[in-house]
């Protein structure tokens, strides 16, 4: 019976032997532009980019299928991002909103970043309204739950996190058209989280694992970050930083791109100090934008093989959150 | 009344029109959100025109980007109070306005009995007029059931 129904519908739209132009549709959607931007601004992350390409292709083909009235369910795009600190989970999530908007999957494409505190209440009856409020804010865009494994605390059976998960599951199932949920966290903890919440696991179609960066990629990231802030390395400075990266990677609390950014921040500090010390001579624009080798080699990583005193970046999520807010 | 078929309460916007569909509500809410107004859902079972402050359903909703969340709340409210009046208001907090800019009814009881006209004899043969909703003869919560 359903077959005849579909056949009837098809005659009302495009006939079965007509053709559509995939290429034209592709160009119309400006997806290439987004993908190029992704390639340009995100270094490495091969598996992630491949998956985004696949999703883009799926949504595009889906749109064409619709012209033939070939019905299929809206694909679920809820995702889980796992990976070590500083591998770009939040950055990619922010891009995801824009990409999905271009593809016409979400309407607004904004990103709402939350953690356990924003979802789980403090007393009975507090959790549901709180979670729902967040969900309503995220509708039409992407809900990004950072460190999602904190939602579930198995050691405390009266924890309200379970209630929050339940509401999330319901919305992920019923309001698939309205929002995309992205869970993020460190790999081992997320695996444990999914093991104890099989319902969550099965509702998430895409499990993306963010690989660690290689030293070369980290150097490219460093240069990109400096360019964004109108700085650059001198040739010696670049060499020094290339030496710095493997040394830093061996030390504890290495957090990939985040460590690199903190190292650059400290280098900028030293550069300013150096310029200040030699303030008798006139400075040119080149002086102001260039990081010299000495700015980098002054790090304790070189001198004593230890972390810089203020270099506890591996654990500093609060700092990260503040930065994100400033960017916005 | 000739202009008001079926004795329907006419308050706020669109109340002389047939009930808005969910798509139409979505578009109206979208307009409100586009202007940066805070949209909320209110309900009551006392349709008197001077009953200005209705009960708020759930929490006020700030910082929403998309009407889907509000439609979800409206449907939730319809499920809880299928026989109440439910309206959607959009509040403009801009200095100088600070008032609801939109308000329209999205749910009505099946049967709206309308109003009784009350006359009050006053001194000097003058008469005071007022209206009383028939439905408010019953206590709150039992009207329109």
Largest interface: A-B, 16 and 13 residues
| Secondary structure: helix percent of chain A | 55-70%
**How many beta-strand segments of chain A?**
7
- Please give the order of strands in the largest beta sheet of chain A: 2-3-4-1-5
Number of helices of chain B: 2
Q: Between the first and last Cα atoms of chain B, what is the distance in angstroms?
A: 25 Å
Coarse structural class of chain B: alpha+beta
Rg of chain A, nearest Å: 24 Å
β-strand percent of chain A reads: 5-15%
The number of distinct helices of chain A, counting runs of at least 4 residues, comes to 17
SSE ordering of chain A: HHHHEHEHHEHEHHEHEHHHEHHH
Task: Provide the helix percentage of chain B.
Answer: 10-25%
Largest β sheet strand count, sense and barrel closure of chain B: 4 strands, antiparallel
Structural class of chain A: alpha/beta
Strand content of chain B: 25-35%
Beta strands of chain B, count = 6
For the largest beta sheet of chain B, what order do the strands appear in spatially?
2-1-3-4
Low-confidence stretches of chain B: none
How would you describe the oligomerization state of the chains in this entry?
Answer: heterodimer
Overall shape of chain B: it is globular
Q: How far from one another are the termini of chain A?
A: 52 Å
Protein described:
The complex is a heterodimer of chains A (328) and B (145). Chain A is an alpha/beta fold and 328 residues long. Chain A has helices spanning 2-12, 22-28, 31-41, 46-67, 89-102, 116-119, 127-138, 161-174, 187-196, 198-203, 215-228, 235-250, 256-277, 285-289, 293-297, 300-303, 317-327; strands at 79-83, 111-114, 142-145, 180-185, 206-210, 232-233, 290-291. In chain A, strands 2-3-4-1-5 form a five-stranded parallel β-sheet, with helices on both faces. A two-stranded parallel ribbon of chain A has the order 6-7. In chain A, strand 3, helix 8 (161-174) and strand 4 form a beta-alpha-beta unit. In chain B, the strands form two sheets. Chain B has a four-stranded antiparallel β-sheet with strand order 2-1-3-4. A two-stranded antiparallel ribbon of chain B has the order 5-6. In chain B, strand 3 (85-92) and strand 4 (99-107) form a beta hairpin. The model of chain B has no long low-confidence stretch (mean pLDDT 90). At the A-B interface, helix 7 of A face helix 2 of B.
């Amino acid at each position: 019976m359903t077959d005849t129904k579909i056949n009837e519908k098809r005659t009302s739209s495009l006939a079965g032997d007509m053709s559509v132009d995939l290429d034209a549709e592709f160009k119309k959607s400006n997806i290439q532009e987004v993908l190029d931007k992704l390639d340009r601004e995100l270094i490495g992350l091969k598996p992630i980019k491949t998956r985004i390409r696949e999703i883009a292709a799926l949504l595009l083909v889906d749109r064409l299928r619709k012209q033939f009235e070939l019905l299929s369910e809206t694909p679920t795009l809820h995702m889980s991002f796992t990976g070590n600190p500083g591998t770009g989970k939040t950055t990619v999530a922010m891009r995801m909103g824009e990409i999905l908007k271009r593809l016409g999957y979400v309407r607004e494409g904004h990103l709402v970043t939350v953690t356990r505190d924003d979802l789980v209440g403090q007393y009975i009856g507090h959790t549901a309204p709180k979670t729902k409020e967040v969900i309503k804010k995220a509708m039409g865009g992407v809900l990004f739950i950072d460190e999602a494994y904190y939602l579930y605390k198995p050691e405390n059976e009266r924890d309200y996190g379970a209630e929050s998960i339940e509401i999330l599951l319901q919305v992920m199932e019923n309001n698939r058209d309205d929002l995309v949920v992205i869970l993020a966290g460190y790999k081992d903890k997320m695996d444990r989280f999914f093991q104890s919440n099989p319902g969550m696991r099965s509702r998430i179609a895409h499990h993306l694992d963010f690989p660690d960066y290689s030293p070369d990629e980290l150097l490219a990231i460093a240069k990109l970050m400096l360019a964004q802030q109108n700085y650059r390395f001198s040739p010696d400075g670049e060499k020094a930083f290339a030496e710095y990266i493997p040394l830093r990677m061996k030390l504890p609390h290495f957090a990939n791109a985040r460590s690199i950014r903190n190292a650059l921040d400290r280098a900028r500090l030293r550069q300013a100090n150096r310029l200040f010390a030699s303030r008798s001579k006139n400075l040119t624009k080149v002086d102001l934008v260039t990081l010299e080798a000495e700015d980098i080699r002054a790090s304790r990583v070189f001198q004593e093989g230890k972390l810089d005193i203020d270099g506890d970046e591996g654990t500093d999520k609060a700092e990260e959150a503040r930065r994100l807010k400033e960017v916005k | 009344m000739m202009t008001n078929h079926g004795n329907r309460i006419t308050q706020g916007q669109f109340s002389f029109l047939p009930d808005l569909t969910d798509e139409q509500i979505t578009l109206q809410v979208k307009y409100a959100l586009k202007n940066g107004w805070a949209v909320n859902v209110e309900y009551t079972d006392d349709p008197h025109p001077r009953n200005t402050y209705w009960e708020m359903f759930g929490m006020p909703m700030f910082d929403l980007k998309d009407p889907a969340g509000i439609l979800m709340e409206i449907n939730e409210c319809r499920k809880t109070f299928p026989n109440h009046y439910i309206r959607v208001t959009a509040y403009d907090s801009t200095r100088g306005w600070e008032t609801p800019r939109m308000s329209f009814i999205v749910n009505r009881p099946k049967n709206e009995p309308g109003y009784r006209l009350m006359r009050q004899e006053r001194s000097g043969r003058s008469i005071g007029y007022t209206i009383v909703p028939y439905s408010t003869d019953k206590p709150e919560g039992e009207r329109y059931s």
